[in-house]
Amino acid sequence: MKAIVALGMTMFLTAETIGQERQDISPEAAATARTLMETALESDLAYDIVESLTTEIGPRLAGSEAEERARAWGAALGQELGFDRVEVEGFTMPFWDRDSLSITMTAPYEMELHGTALGGSGSGSVQSEIVYFRTVDDLVAAEDGSLEGRIAFIDGDIMVRSQVGAGYGPANQRRRIGWQHAERAGASALVVRSVGSDSHRFPHTGMMSDLDGSWADIPVIAVSNPDADHLRRLHNNGEAISLTVNSVAGWHGEVTSGNVVLDIVGRENPEEIVLIGGHLDSWDLGTGAVDDGAGVAITVAAAKLIADLPQRPRRTIRVVMFGAEEVGLLGARAYAEQHADEVANHVLATESDFGARTIWRLSSNVSEAGTPVIDEVGRVIAPLGIIRGGSNEPGGGPDIIPLAMLGVPTVRLEQNGEDYFDLHHTPDDTLDKIDPDELAQNVAAYAALVYLAAETDADFRETPDGTASQ
Amino acid sequence: MKAIVALGMTMFLTAETIGQERQDISPEAAATARTLMETALESDLAYDIVESLTTEIGPRLAGSEAEERARAWGAALGQELGFDRVEVEGFTMPFWDRDSLSITMTAPYEMELHGTALGGSGSGSVQSEIVYFRTVDDLVAAEDGSLEGRIAFIDGDIMVRSQVGAGYGPANQRRRIGWQHAERAGASALVVRSVGSDSHRFPHTGMMSDLDGSWADIPVIAVSNPDADHLRRLHNNGEAISLTVNSVAGWHGEVTSGNVVLDIVGRENPEEIVLIGGHLDSWDLGTGAVDDGAGVAITVAAAKLIADLPQRPRRTIRVVMFGAEEVGLLGARAYAEQHADEVANHVLATESDFGARTIWRLSSNVSEAGTPVIDEVGRVIAPLGIIRGGSNEPGGGPDIIPLAMLGVPTVRLEQNGEDYFDLHHTPDDTLDKIDPDELAQNVAAYAALVYLAAETDADFRETPDGTASQ
Ligand SMILES: [Zn+2]
Ligand SMILES: [Zn+2]
Ligand SMILES: [Zn+2]
Ligand SMILES: [Zn+2]
Fold first, then answer.
1. Can you tell me which residues the record assigns to a coiled coil (chains A, B) (predicted)?
2. Other C-beta atoms within 10 Å of B268: how many?
3. Which one, out of A43, B154, B245, B319, has a CA that is 20 to 30 A from the CA of A348?
4. What pLDDT does B469 receive?
């Protein structure tokens, strides 16, 4: 990162003279963006924020008392940093929580396995030989009632590692729908290989998919990749494998969660909103540093740097710390509902929720009129080691989905996610995994993008006839 | 490793012509050693052995039923591979075992920590604010009775990473003697930062030191590096930290352990022994792949390749799978006692117990007369990427210590231990951490060294007057 920083400083000067030829973004605005980047690269603010969140609050399961403490922390942070408006916007949600779990191999010999209940898992004490399924598809093909009283085990494969996280969707099927077929076939418990790209003995938790609003009655347990490898080798040796699973987990009625909304109010078009953010909840196993303390920290820090400028940008910058992302984008849905009357005023939205590694690509899905502005942003942030990607790529982070579905334009600063799924939803998602310099590069890119999007008068939204709206 | 293999093949040819000029090792012997190396680099035998041990036996705590299964496995392996003599040599030992543990931070908020009892820990349920000690020396300086009923926490620092494992000794003081000072000061429990170079949420177990034959009455728990970091940050923030520790662990009387001894009997001097080996026991948290399934596999495979030659070497090659290493070199001490009358016949001894990474250096501590032979071995194995180190360096692995103290000459094939203490004594010490190519390089080096040491008629031992004996 030191190299990038040094390179950046040199290239900013060169880029500045080029920038003066562009439209939609004034030379002054581009120069301000470059100054923001320089400031961001030297700033510890984002690291301090994620250190504070993970240390002072710790794990913050959606709907828990810890998540409530996190909201208070977020609101206090917003006040302290001088945001113009600070709101905690509550919503209710069903609360799932885990208690104790033990999962032990009892045959061919006794060995404790490293497992965790998946989100939505039921409770139960089961002792049985396992029925081995090489893939989730094999379990999908199991006949109704064929697993009566048994423990099903879906092996699958270690998640494929990729910069863009492309391995997640395919691997995630066993976590998402495995339980539905295990229950249909009569199994008393389901054990699955974790959805993760690491080879450490950490299980990866995460939410299952509901089935028409209902959830698993049986325990559904993810075991670490090395544990799954171990079971596979024993199975391939022809050994009969028995497990004992004792899981206590389940639903506990409705509780309150909430989003924390921090605004830097625009000087000319305060009703127009550039929305950024991350999610405040984390899984309970780690302290949620890369998922998603980093996203909260990056976006708050970027907005704060902009707030420190001599004047507010034209448009409002809104940082949302979404609640209850992990359990089904509940905060994001609540936000879209609670802000239904101003959704059309959201000119651009993006979330940071893919770890804390360096951003390497800028992609977007905005109006034809707005695309050259994002192109220009791309030129401004290029010295940070970021290339311009597709200009017609939907997406902006999970919590942006409800807004995007309502037509809000999105942009994405894509982080290198090569090791994100090593840590994702494990106990190992802790502060030490964050490189302060990489985090600062993120803040620099966000600060430039968000400032320019808020300062330009170009419109990223489409009108019904496909041209830029006003 | 593919590069090293290819390089090796070319360089063997070159080295061969040089080798013909050397003394003590005949050109034929050197040629045979090079053939053994080529065979070893292409062989999967060592990997198959460590896969079998870790998969079919699993964790194998010293003195446990699992360690007994491992001895049966070792003896059956020796028979199957055609060793000339296979013995299981029993001894008795006191048995320490852990049962359940929970360690939870209860203030400033609730969070489960990742901990494990240290070997020799007592049982107890304690709830208390912690007294923070920056280093073990600070606890050593605590006054008698000053910690009455409290939980002491030794922070210390993450173990320094090094190729030769030099960080282990200094870091290990808190694990070794911390409890003695915690008890002296009246603490009800001791928590220490794990002795490990990783930043994963795995605690590292390991034996404490006894105090004149007595062991801890209180629970002594190691927490992972990220957990210790977390406590340090909270402490530095001025927070009062409370923990709840519930540990069940302790001593359970005398049990039987044993060493497995496999001999390739020498054709000319069967009474002279070149001893190699590893330890069969492992800590209970992982499956003991790098500590020390690898060492067992490397040395058994090397001996087996030599046994496959048309004729036995001059001297006997003995592979010892030592029992109960982790709890105080008990197998090694038993071996030295039980073989007291033939200790003087051990012409050279070395153990592989430092992981499964590439060997990079050959060091030795043998007679003046024997040193040129080891030098020549160094030239033969140099194409494997191994340099010749000191020729007066004591050591040959932990289980060799009792023999070395009785005057048995030692040699060491030093592995790259840079990440050994990432895995050491953690649940994460599993088969997937072993690279088959790196393991094969170890076998190649051992096969060449052991063959040449068993085939030469040079003596590595010193006579009382300091010249070579015999
Ligand atoms: Zn997330
Ligand atoms: Zn997540
Ligand atoms: Zn060892
Ligand atoms: Zn060890």
1. none
2. 12
3. A43
4. 38
